Amino acid sequence: MEDRRTERVRRFYEEAPFPSYGARDTLASLRLRAERSALARLLDEAIPQDARVLDLGCGTGQMTIFLANGKRRVVGADLTRGALALAADAARRFGVEGALFVETDLRRPGLGEGRFDVVLSLGVLHHTPDPRAAFGALARLARPDGVIVVGLYNAFARFPHRLRRLLARATGMRLVVGDPVLSARQHEPARRAAWLRDQYLHPEEHRHTLGEVQRWFRDNDVEYLRCYPSALLDGDGPRGDELFSPAEDDWWPEGILAQLGWMRTLGAEGGLFVVIGRRRGGR
Description:
A 7-stranded mixed sheet has the order 3-2-1-4-5-7-6, sandwiched between helices. Helix content is 40%, strand content 18%. The mean pLDDT is 92. It has 11 helices and 7 strands. The chain has one domain: Rossmann fold, CATH 3.40.50.150. It has helices at residues 2-15, 27-35, 38-46, 62-67, 81-94, 131-139, 159-170, 180-184, 189-200, 210-219, 252-265, and strands spanning 52-56, 73-78, 99-103, 116-122, 142-153, 222-228, 272-279. It is globular and about 50 Å long. By secondary structure, the protein is an alpha/beta fold.
């Protein structure tokens, strides 16, 4: 059953790799677009320039290429050959030498365990049949004391989108209202269609709470550091040099209230939150 579900996701992305590249994209325009994301900027600041990085579930490799600067070596891994072909072609066109792309299945990643200083998986685990098991496989790829960064749909923050999607599907996708990303892409038909397909028609989706992901961390000997946005009600967002450091506090009632607030702050763009941990064993 899981193999059939994974294959369905593979076919989904083979038909329309996400996110797409524009005909006029350059390395400068890709970096400019990535730098509009506060998380991308923070990751670029936090990851050492000589780090070995794995971007697991890299899709078309835009984050991989963005991070592959300086002396960093970034491996982008995905199960979709079409997306990897676009990624490798973009890296060649842009002259990015620090990015390498490989085909792999997240459930059985054909990569050496304990080899990476930083393992990223942004917007991927929630599209697998068993996200908890997929996280276990991912965690083993980080070296002892290595950092793990996972981005997932939050069960609270995703709720506004689920209402929009329910209305859209009930009207045969004729009525899609209240989606600011679609509104912003009115004059970019290809990027608008890609967002619509990924967010409203995906065949496999799960949603998770911070507490649930913290249990995954404990079960796999990963120390919880913090989440992004902050789960502290009065906490400012971290600077780049703080992203891989423990948060000031970790009190579950405050975390619940923070996640409820994310319905307003994250719900407009799909409700993705990021949880950061450190694999134990290196200190």
